[in-house]
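Issue: ligand-bound run for 2-oxoadipic acid - logging full I/O for the record.

Environment: standard queue, default settings, no custom constraints.

Inputs:
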Amino acid sequence: MTTDIGALARAAERLDTAQHTVSPVEQLPDGLTPADAYAIQDAVIARRLERGERPAGLKLGFTSKAKMAQMGVSEVIVGRLTDAMRVSDGGDVPLERFIHPRVEPEVAYRIARDVTTDDEELPVDAVAPALEIIDSRYRDFRFSLPDVIADNASSAAFVVGAWQPLGVDLGDLAVRLTADGATVETGSTSAILGHPDRALPALLEIARRQGMPLRAGHVVLAGGATAAAPFPPGRVEVHVTGLGSASAIGRGR
Ligand code: OOG
Ligand code: MG
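Outputs:
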């Protein structure tokens, strides 16, 4: 069933308001299709771009079993990143701007040039360790597949470490997430679709279907390699063996 345009716009307004007023909302009504949900996501992003934010890339969600099991969703989804979500490596994350922030260790790719409809592969020119801060706008961080798509795949903020040239095989690198030096989650990049490079064709397919542009310099997040952890006050860091690290400091709360 496809819901009427007015209902989709109202859902987008509710999710957008939840994000910038930092107040959780109820899940969306049952019966929405993934297509409806991406239409809501489009409208949420349009509202952010109208306020002056600029597209910064795309992120994949549920590319690892750990994430699927944690959230009870087993389909790969895509969300949009904007410049307002970017936190510099080692920078501050003001925790009061989020409802119930969590953090995930990820791998980022950099888009080499504007992607066109002729591209059969995503042109990438660098990779980096990354942190994603997710924050569901839904009460209790609970959602169905359409709910989380509509909510821009829980995107909230992201940190990219120093870009590295291509050449490192990302297939099975050890991943560690630490909070104030203590290990919180460990895993391997192989958790991401068996190899994080597989995130690229998966992303291209969805981005093309949904008409999501990718431009030179945009960031692609391949998805959490482990379950997400609550973002605590203090220093959070991801370490990827052979690739490097990235960190952020949780302030407030
Ligand atoms: C949705 C976002 C999933 C990932 O890396 O798998 C995601 C969520 O878990 O709230 O970002
Ligand atoms: Mg993620």
